[in-house]
Amino acid sequence: MNILIYTQCFAPKLGGIESVMTNIAIQSKKIGHDVNVLADGSKSQSLSFDNQQNFEIKRFDQIKFFRNKIKSSFANDLLKNKQFDLVFFDSWKSIEHFTNTSKIKKICLIHGNEILNLKKKDRIVNALSKSDKILFNSKYTQTLFYKQLPELKHLQCQIIFPAFIQHTHHSNNEKKYDLCTIARLEYRKGHHLVLEALKKLKNEKNIILTYAILGDGPELSKLKDLVIKNNLLNQVDFINNINSSDIYKISKIHVMPTITTPDSIEGFGISNVEAASFGLPSIVSSSGGTPESIDQNGYVINEHDINGLSEKILLSLENYSKLSEKSLEFARNFENERKIREYLNCFAN
């Protein structure tokens, strides 16, 4: 098949949506399909990554108003000269500017946050009406979508959990960290709740646990202040600019007790699946679609529940070997070749 990826979000930029769109491109090419990518982003900053790929990537780095028009025009010219079977859009914000009316199958991904702002409801409805099928990243996101946009119930849809795993790793590395969180440093990810749980375990049970925080973002200074305030300096490491796999290999448990805010939700939780592929159980909250990113390989707590979080940390450590095996078993459902066929065969369902 000839596949077009039309996206605002793509590697080397990091993030959940970026990971999904990049993997659709890379894995499609690996199993023999022809791939073209039209992506936003700096050409100079992306040059090294783009040169390493064996498919064509065209970058659009103009200011937003001109970028959308230039990108759409380029797509129209491309489609006049080459026949495509499928085009994947990362969100309604991309398909909104796609003006080609050919019979190419148009697939738009729905993640959650991008449909929260009902001030843009008319734009969202008009944009998604162009699609032939929409793909939700969780049951939670599907439910939210129909609550927000009942006008679009007629569209074909499917739920595909958006995580790609190269293979599972049963690591025998020495575990430097009891806990880790791999996520952007945002309030809704719940890092501060993990720090509160560490404080509670230390003060009430004299249990000293180590914690790795990998990522960057607006909460960094607040989290560092909280570490000092709670006397956790010898227990917590802030890490950046290394591969997440390096942290998974030396950690026991992944913890991400996400929080729902008025303008932000966690639609799924890709890092929980990635952690599982290294044998890490996960502790997550009941927020959004996060519970769907684990199975029998971890625990779900209520949002903001420090007591529950503390208890599940100890329970996870106690049952670590059993949960680790269940994590590897769960992660195998997301191996690359199996997952890409879910996306490419979505019209066969």
Search tags:
349 residues; alpha/beta; Rossmann fold; 2 domains; 6-stranded parallel sheet
Alpha-carbon distance between the two ends: 17 Å
N-to-C SSE series? EHEHEHEHEHEHEEHEHEHEHEEHHH
Tell me the number of structural domains.
2
CATH class label of the largest domain: Alpha Beta
Describe the SSE topology.
Blueprint: E1 2-7, H1 16-30, E2 34-40, H2 43-51, E3 56-60, H3 64-81, E4 86-89, H4 92-95, E5 105-110, H5 121-128, E6 133-136, H6 139-148, E7 157-159, E8 177-182, H7 191-205, E9 211-214, H8 220-229, E10 236-239, H9 244-248, E11 251-256, H10 270-276, E12 282-285, E13 298-301, H11 306-318, H12 320-331, H13 336-344
Helix pairs in contact: 1-13, 7-11, 10-12
What would your notes on this structure say?
There is one protein chain. By secondary structure, the protein is an alpha/beta fold. The chain has two domains: about 1-160, 3-Layer(aba) Sandwich (Rossmann fold), CATH 3.40.50.2000; about 175-335, Rossmann fold (3-Layer(aba) Sandwich), CATH 3.40.50.2000. About 40% of the residues lie in helices and about 20% in strands. It contains 13 helices and 13 strands. It has helices at about 15-30, 45-50, 65-80, 90-95, 120-130, 140-150, 190-205, 220-230, 245-250, 270-275, 305-320, 320-330, 335-345; strands spanning about 1-5, 35-40, 55-60, 85-90, 105-110, 135, 155-160, 175-180, 210-215, 235-240, 250-255, 280-285, 300. The strands form two sheets. Strands 3-2-1-4-5-6-7 form a seven-stranded parallel sheet, with helices on both faces. A six-stranded parallel sheet has the order 10-9-8-11-12-13, sandwiched between helices. Helix 10 crosses helix 12 (about 320-330). The radius of gyration is 21 Å and the shape is globular. It starts with a strand and ends in a 5-residue tail after the last helix.
